[in-house]
Amino acid sequence: MADSGLGGTFTMAGGPTVSRMGYGAMQLAGPGVFGPPADRDEAIAVLRTAVELGIDHIDTADFYGPHVTNELIREALAPYDDVLIVTKVGAVRDEQGGWPHARSPEQLREQVESNLRTLGVDALDVVNLRVGGGPDGHSPVPGSIAEPFGALAEMREQGLIKHLGVSVVDEAQVREAQSIAPVVTVQNWYNVAHRGDEALIASLNEQGISYVPFWPLGGFTPIQSAVLDTVAKDLGASPQAVALAWLLHQSPNICVIPGTSSVAHLRENVAAASLELPDDALAALDGIAG
Q1: Is the CB of residue 12 less than 8 Å from the CB of residue 202?
Q2: How does pLDDT run across 45-87, given as a tens digit for each residue?
Q3: Span 77-118, pLDDT tens digits
Q4: What amino acid positions are annotated as catalytic residues?
Q5: In 3D, which of 268, 253, 261 has the Cα closest to residue 213?
Q6: Cβ distance 164 to 156 under 8 Å?
C-alpha cells in the first residue's frame, strides 16, 4: 500500500490499483434514489471535484435513478481517463421504491447492456453481483450464486466486463464465486458498530482482494451513536469522518465509498483519509461493538 493522500492505494490481485478513498454515486439521484438530482450542476461538480481531489474509484449502478447516476457520470467524466467505474447488477427498481432481485441470466445481460449504454463504454471496468438483502435489506442470504455469477463470468469472457466482484454475500458465496471466475472486490455492510465480516476481510486481504464497506453510519444504537459523537467532538471532526477514518485504519484492503450530493461534504469526507485516530479514540470506538 502506497500513500496517495487518500488513505493510500490498494492493488487488487489481477486487477487495478485504486485510491482507498472512493466515491459512491447513489446520492446523486433524486429523493428515494429516483429521478434526477435537485441540482444537476452541483451533481456534475461533485463528480469532477472528486476526480480533481485524486479519487479514482467511483461506485454506481444503473438502477440508481434508474439510469440517472450513470448518465451524470458519463456527462461529467467520460472518457474516464484513469478513473475506475464500478457498477452493480442483480436488482431493479419497482414503482414502490423497492429493490427486487433480478438475477436470471437474461436479466443480468439486460442490466450489463444497459450499464454499457448509459456509461457510454464498450466494456465495464468492474461489475459486482448484488446478492443478499435479508430482513434488514443489507445482509447476506445463504445459497448458491453459481447461476448468476456464472452468467457474469460468461460476459467477462465475451469482453463486456473486465473484472468481477460480489456484494452482500457470505464467505461461502465468495468461495463459490472464486471457483467460477476471479473476484477482485467484495462489497458488504461493515462499520464500527457492525463487524460481522472481520474474518472475511482478513482472508480477502491475504488474497489481494479489496473489501468495500457500505453504510458507514448504518445500524447504530443510540448508545453507540453517542460514543461516536463523543469521539468526533474530542477530535474536532464529524462522526462521518471518524467512521471513515476507523474503516481505513482496520485493514489495508478496505476501500471506502462515501456518497454525497454536496461538494463541501465531499471535501469533508476526503479529509477523513488523513484523520489520525489516537489510541484512546480507537479504544473507545473498538468498545462500541463489545
Answers
A1: no
A2: 999 999 999 999 999 999 999 999 999 999 999 999 999 999 9
A3: 999 999 999 999 999 999 888 899 999 999 999 999 999 999
A4: 64
A5: 253
A6: yes
Instruction: Note whether 50 and 15 are within 8 A (CB).
Output: no
Cα–Cα distance between 153 and 175 in angstroms, integer? Answer: 14
pLDDT, averaged across the chain: 95
- Per-residue pLDDT of 155-177, as tens digits, reads 999 999 999 999 999 999 999 99
**Alpha carbon distances (Å) from 226 to 139, 220, 222, 223, 232:** 24, 9, 6, 5, 10
Phi, psi for residue 110 in degrees, rounded to 5 = -60, -40
Q: With pLDDT > 90 as the criterion, what percentage of the chain qualifies?
A: 93
Q: Please name the residue that has the C-alpha cell 450464486.
A: 145
Whether cis (ω within 30° of 0) applies to the bond prior to 258 is no
Q: What is the 3-state secondary structure (H, E, C) of the chain?
A: CCCCCCCCEEECCCCCEEECECEECHHHCCHHHECCCCCHHHHHHHHHHHHHCCCCEEECCCCCECCHHHHHHHHHHCCCCCCEEEEEECECCCCCCCCCECCCHHHHHHHHHHHHHHHCCCCEEEEEEECCECCCCCECCCCCCHHHHHHHHHHHHCCCEEEEEEECCCHHHHHHHHCCCCCCEEEEECECCECCCHHHHHHHHHHCCEEEEECCCCCCCHHHHHHHHHHHHHHCCCHHHHHHHHHHHHCCCECECCECCCHHHHHHHHHHHHCCCCHHHHHHHHCCCC
> What does the alpha-carbon distance between residue 122 and residue 160 come to, in Å, rounded to a whole number?
7
How many CB atoms sit inside 10 A of residue 31's CB? Answer: 9
- Here the cell at position 88 is 452493480
Whole-number Å distance between alpha carbons of 15 and 183: 9
The span from the CA of 86 to the CA of 200, in Å, is 21
pLDDT over 50 (residue 1)? no
Check pLDDT > 90 for residue 136: no
Q: Which residue is listed with cell 457500505?
A: 214
